[in-house]
User: Fold these one by one.
Assistant:
Number 1:
Amino acid sequence: GQQLNQSPQSMFIQEGEDVSMNCTSSSIFNTWLWYKQDPGEGPVLLIALYKAGELTSNGRLTAQFGITRKDSFLNISASIPSDVGIYFCAGLLSGNTPLVFGKGTRLSVIA
Amino acid sequence: SQTIHQWPATLVQPVGSPLSLECTVEGTSNPNLYWYRQAAGRGLQLLFYSVGIGQISSEVPQNLSASRPQDRQFILSSKKLLLSDSGFYLCAWSVTGGNTIYFGEGSWLTVV
């Protein structure tokens, strides 16, 4: 089946630093989604990308849908302690096929 | 607006006991519904999804089953739990043909 390679697996950064994580796939997707999961809670949608080349921001977060439709990245600028959590990318081929998730990037922010 | 709710939030069950986790969605009709499992500190594994009442697709063979008795209700069950069934179970929904899914709060299951 389809698989997403998400990297890095974990990150330890200083408060105020910028963060970058990405996902790559061997096959194309028509939608890329980025979620954040806080401990003990369900993932919350951060950014949705629906078009190849699309660059979308949500506050300090910026995500891009790769031109080849096989990759996406998420950047967080000026990290703060509440950015701690697990970030998941997810790709979708069509509306009635299940999302394919990456394995997550665990972000730790050191104050 | 649409909401999703699942329960119970936490559950401790002995090995061999049955399981029933419930999920309901409000504010939409004919949603696609999903059950995911997340082992501690790991990624999300799709267990079941449903595009309509009585229609269940299983992604992973196991001792769990899912049912959709009503349009906006999705139930995850087991007749006999195994230790390996422990984990964080997440229900999710999307609009029919939609390209974004939304998760419930999650249910922690510990099998002892």
Number 2:
Amino acid sequence: EAQVTQNPRYLITVTGKKLTVTCSQNMNHEYMSWYRQDPGLGLRQIYYSMNVEVTDKGDVPEGYKVSRKEKRNFPLILESPSPNQTSLYFCASSLGSGGAYSVDTQYFGPGTRLTVL
Amino acid sequence: AQKITQTQPGMFVQEKEAVTLDCTYDTSDPSYGLFWYKQPSSGEMIFLIYQGSYDQQNATEGRYSLNFQKARKSANLVISASQLGDSAMYFCAMRDFSASKIIFGSGTRLSIRP
């Protein structure tokens, strides 16, 4: 089954304790992305990756790191989490080869609800 | 700079009626794609429909259609014959292909009344 998986689904942690949220896709997609969702703000892109070893900042990258060592995996790292990073996080992937002439659907993971105390 | 605006934070619609969810966008890139996603109360993001900036015809997917007015920079989602299961948050999003970023609007919460 084609899917994007995220782990953990729920996480409660304390300020300053490093954590990693894993993301994996089995569709051989080039493009992967992380978003955070906060009430009233929609989804905001944190980081994205066009391909292996190629990552770039989205609109809200502060306090986050990512890496893309393999095509299928795109972990999100919070080196020193703070309470303002409490949010719902989504990983997504797409073929990445689409353009204005073709559909380039993003497939989303189930989300990770993070609480930083 | 890119921007997506959804001006309707919430809407109530009677079952079986058609509903239009508004979305306006701003970009200087001629090559872009517009998406609509549905997020039910369970939280997952469900892709509904896509419109490329060069598509000549409005996209349609079953009961969903996208009313694409390029000159006005609007990409409204039309749901025909609404059902109770359509109650959800709906997000409009845009991908700017030169920047490769994707931005989302703030969403519209649609509630269908029986």
